[in-house]
Write a structure and sequence with these properties.
Elements lengths: L1 E2 L5 E15 L3 H16 L4 E12 L2 E10 L2 H14 L9 E14 L4
Length: about 110
């Protein structure tokens, strides 16, 4: 933990954001798959937290996005590798496209803990 010039606690972390475009009609299957993933995600070493949201409809798709916060980029990579190798062969889930964005971040806390 480090402190900013104003004395606030800061926490360095790694964030990954993923946007999903799910074909309409596949939403329930996709949300079920994400619920199952979130159970494993909660147990991941180095996870600080995550959020998953359903967005708006966009043409033939429904948009979703997730944000995960990790202690380090290495912890994220370790989890992602384990998840990819843990998937059943040929199981790609509902038809969707995704875009992953990764960020190094420092979060300032005005309420020291």
């Amino acid at each position: 933990m480090k402190y900013s010039a104003t004395g606030k606690k800061e926490r360095a972390m790694f964030m990954a954001s993923n946007q999903f475009k799910v074909v309409k009609g596949c939403e329930e299957t996709f949300e079920t798959a994400w619920r199952e993933t979130s159970v494993r995600l909660r147990e991941a070493a180095g996870l600080i937290g995550f959020q998953f949201h359903r967005g708006k409809e966009c043409g033939p798709h429904v948009l979703y996005f997730s944000v995960t916060m990790w202690e380090t980029e290495e912890r994220f990579i370790d989890w992602r590798r384990a998840e990819l190798y843990g998937l059943p062969s040929g199981d790609t889930g509902p038809r969707c496209a995704s875009r992953l964005e990764e960020f190094d971040a420092t979060v300032s806390r005005s309420n020291p803990q």
